[in-house]
Amino acid sequence: AQSVTQPDIHITVSEGASLELRCNYSYGATPYLFWYVQSPGQGLQLLLKYFSGDTLVQGIKGFEAEFKRSQSSFNLRKPSVHWSDAAEYFCAVVPNSGGYQKVTFGTGTKLQVIP
Amino acid sequence: DAGVIQSPRHEVTEMGQEVTLRCKPISGHNSLFWYRQTMMRGLELLIYFNNNVPIDDSGMPEDRFSAKMPNASFSTLKIQPSEPRDSAVYFCASSLPHSSYNEQFFGPGTRLTVL
Hints:
By secondary structure, chain A is an all-beta fold. Chain A has no helices and twelve strands. In chain A, the strands form three sheets. In chain A, strands 2, 5, 6, 10, 11 and 12 form a six-stranded mixed sheet that branches. In chain A, strands 3-9-8-7 form a four-stranded antiparallel sheet, with no helix packed on it. A two-stranded antiparallel ribbon of chain A has the order 1-4.
């Protein structure tokens, strides 16, 4: 069955430290991949997306993600975390098979940033 | 642009009452999505409209739920009668003509509490 997994429910990092959030997917072919962020009391906002080409994609707010086909992963990274990055992060996938395809969201990783 | 607008932001009602949630998508977006977010089940797609026509309603929980999109600038999600297990945050999202790789823009959500 097709699925997307975010193994870390909650992560705490110190301000200024680096961050990596994990996302693994299980699909027959490489899907379209997204990372969204949800700040408290807000809707989701797109950080970045991957369709094809360069496996390292840059997004907003200083985030980047790397697609690794061999590991079926699309991990989100940031070199130096700011207190304002505290939020919940969702990985999402869509089958790359044309026409309408439903977006499947991961269960989310809640990021806490400590001073 | 004001983004996706949802109303009300918070709704508290008693079991058995009718609840109507409203959404105004971003102008020019002809794809609209209703999602439900709970701690237990995460983010679930309820229904997807394209050009005001429901395309995928496989996520609608049961007959108590109904959604309409009478025109390109307005959609409603109705629950009748409401039950405590319907308590959740309901998001509306819109996007450009649907393609799997188009970003979805989320509204701030409606937090529904059914007592």
